[in-house]
Automatic annotation (TrEMBL):
Its EC number is 2.3.2.8. The keyword Acyltransferase applies. This is arginyltransferase. Keywords: Acyltransferase, Transferase.
Amino acid sequence: MALSLLRPVGYNCSTCGYCSPPGQRSSRKSSRSYGMVAPSMSPSFYQGLIDRGWRRSGEYVYHPDMRDTCCPQYTIRLDAGAFSPTKNQRGVVNRFNRFLQTGHKPGEGGDEAAGTQGGGGKAKGKGKGKAKPFDLVEELRLHQVGYATGESKHKFELEFVPAVASDETFALYKRYQMAVHNDGPGKNSMTSFSRFLCDSPLGDEAITYSDGADTAHLPQHYGSYHLLYRVDGKLVGISVIDVLPACVSSVYFIWDPDWAWAALGKLSALFEIALVREMAAAGAEGMKWLYMGYWIADCAKMRYKGEYAPSFLLDPGTQQFHLLTSKLDTFLQSHKGYIGFTDVEAMSAEAVNAAKAAAPAVNGSGEASQSHDVSMEEKGEWADEDEDSEDDESEDDDAEYPTPPPPGMLDPATLSAELLGSLVVFTDTGSGLGLVPYAMFKRRLRPAGRRMTTELVAAVGPELLASIKNRQFEEKGLLFFG
């Protein structure tokens, strides 16, 4: 099992890509978060972090300050087993299957429903007929190599590969960023692509499936993957995902601009849901959720994730998940700062609606927010969840850890010297890397280093860290000064 190593970066402020016009960032550094670097993490440890509202971008792991940041970013997850696709989502699958089978894109070849198998088509015979039940996994595999039994005009393949940069994946990423996000030709490099969407601290841990289960098409290890979508051998999409003990975590989705008609972003979401279902059916214990990154109440390119139901939002203060209801959604659209979800649920619908009508939408500068409307192509893009996460944390401004602390985090002043001293540091011992009690190691640190260490413990929570008392050096996080 990989060790989980944590090095403090600290509380910082940065510009925001959400409360600003498309393609621009806020003029003020109004986005606030706590960050750390994790050069190594076990998948189980990272599962515990995302269950508390953390996310990673490469080796940088961060948690928004959900009280003071301009655009609160809520962890959102979908119960994959309980998910039932909407008419629109079924239509995305049916149109793609029709293209694979007949070669016809939407608007070509007459009736869009003609020539498709499955997909909720109506039975032949007298009367209106009865819609065929829509089995998501079955429909998605209908024309996929390795599953398909009939003939198709086009060859569709899915391939799991480790999250490693290649000339092919980088070329598609660069095209996508230029066409969809208006990046200049020189903005993206193989190095930045690797750092953002390939470099991963997650260790390689074998997945245990049920004896006799067919797992040839499933990931064999927890960790970071690129799920490649190919049509006739051509790469048309890349899902960047983390496979963790309880979930598949969507990181980013890249698609070929020539395939905008296919709504590949929405399609990839459905394939990721199907992956969770198939892993659970094969006996991967605990596998249940699709984590969709962060959800922002008043940002269209983020809030669409709630269209996949039933979805749950993390209350950052209690670190408990709550069903994303219309009441909770309405309240969060009109309120910044932090109020516990249980308190919101106790409010009357009239009070929530009245508060929404009275509260103007504001951005981090205190001005009326710019429109967050985006194109349908952007709405269809899955897990493009954090424009800020690509930025190098070194470009952020260091700021003081706030008092009171961010929701879900502790006040560093409440941590006792005894507790801190019992924690374990992974560092150079003089004869190689090894474990040292923090009580001994802290003598090497300047006052600023000690302060930053205490703030990391407060932000992450001492219960997630290894100590000489619990001796869970592999299961829990280790302070790291390498």
